[in-house]
């Protein structure tokens, strides 16, 4: 896999009339990662995807895919695929024919296409509907077919816009498991409103707000999963001094209002998060503290909702 | 602009387009309507031929008349050559009213002789195809790319091939479809003639239909180009159809106005515009010589390419 970022956008601007969709967006997706793109409605996620895929042209800015410039079907055919949001496949051919057509266009040989279509049908659990016209499929099945076509062939970069939207919980789980299993084999960029989903399947994340990236990085870093422990305490004693003494060199803070003890520890060889947790819990239990919950870091949702003001400062171009 | 395998992609898109159209209820409805109109018109025309036959073969219709009143009511025994002649359904050349009508319309003797030598049913098939095919194309072909924009289905394709291949494949698929439809309507015309006309001969009829069919196809091609131009630059099927029909109307107006001038003092701009519409090249497709018809077909192919190129110029720049 190439060492260059799978997707690179730098100072990208896009307007729809008076509406500023992207406002100097800068985003770098490392190759081989499962990358989550989160943000509220209208944040610019779908526009970012559309510009990356070449559906829309940026007003200005730099876009590069797989280190090979902006999207070009000549250069990127078969290497980049996408599940576009709200796009519908033709209605009059059957499921297998649709997949075969897209696969052939993508460069899958006539000899290999049959097996490839079977693989994808199994992947998205549509084997039994292979001969049915797409017009007869339910919304969820169409969504699965859309996901399936994005994994035809052997793409290096797959862009999935709200992939599990409209799927039942079982199917959503299967798709999430599949996406997570692709880590290291190809780069997958997933946009979603479902922060739990992003946290489950992605190893990197970026939050978009009003056409800009508010924060981005590895999930573990963003949520503090690798160096932060949060202990929620019920009413009762809080032996802060004893904990600070036991965890000398680490940062211990106490949020009285939320009753959360936050431990940010120094990573050292032979010292794991479990060791730090064990030390802290022993001190707390010895002091008679009542423990409600223990978490590694904070959830992505808490991080997202806890941002004091995710709104970026006004841009000089405004 | 083109992918590494443009021809392969164009053929893939065209094949898919044709298959999809052949399973589309809407396409079936429009084509069935076209064939119905062609059938009814052919039936009406065949009845005219039957009447013409009756007139020619009735001895009472041969009236002496050098001066007013002279020989009125006189009956001439039809000459043996006429009594034993094939039906008028086979040839126009033996029917003086039709011959007179065509002579007044066509000034080129070679063309007149060529047309008079062909079975009327084949001529009628060609004429009605020239008249109605552009409407069929504008109604069906104009929607095909715009529909993909409306549903955003084009986004699945745009990641896999170039925009030019997509458009050319769609246009080619529509060309295949229209070719099939016109061939089918030719077969229907012949079948109706065989059913209604006692003296109908399949051999000359089929060969004449096959002679004119490529000319009809060539005439339809620029209209497919125009439909694609409108379709690729519209966001909805309805808009594309409206633009296409407006375009068709515009072409008809340009040619009509240019025809009114009848080659005399035609303003240069109008002359140029007239050359750019397929309607003005229709008459040349009736000519007998292959060279003349071939050059007209080349002009029509150039017009098709021009319309597609104009459409693609804008299409390459638009958001999908």
Question: Can you describe what's shown?
Answer:
Chain A is of the alpha/beta class. Chain A has two domains: 7-222, 3-Layer(aba) Sandwich (Rossmann fold), CATH 3.40.50.300; 226-296, Alpha-Beta Plaits. Helix content of chain A is 31%, strand content 26%. A six-stranded mixed β-sheet of chain A has the order 5-6-7-3-8-9, sandwiched between helices. A four-stranded antiparallel β-sheet of chain A has the order 11-12-10-13, with helices on one face. A three-stranded antiparallel β-sheet of chain A has the order 2-1-4, with helices on one face. In chain A, helix 3 (95-106) crosses helix 4. Chain A is elongated and about 70 Å long. Residues 308-318 of chain A have low confidence and may be disordered. The longest helix of chain B has 34 residues, at 163-196. With 320 residues, chain B is mainly alpha-helical. Residues 61-86 of chain B have low confidence and may be disordered. Chain B has helices at residues 6-22, 25-57, 80-83, 96-105, 109-116, 120-140, 143-151, 154-158, 163-196, 202-232, 237-261, 268-275, 290-315. The relative contact order of chain B is 0.13. In chain B, helix 1 (6-22) crosses helix 9 and helix 6 (120-140) packs parallel to helix 10 (202-232). Classes of the chains: A alpha/beta (318), B mainly alpha (320).
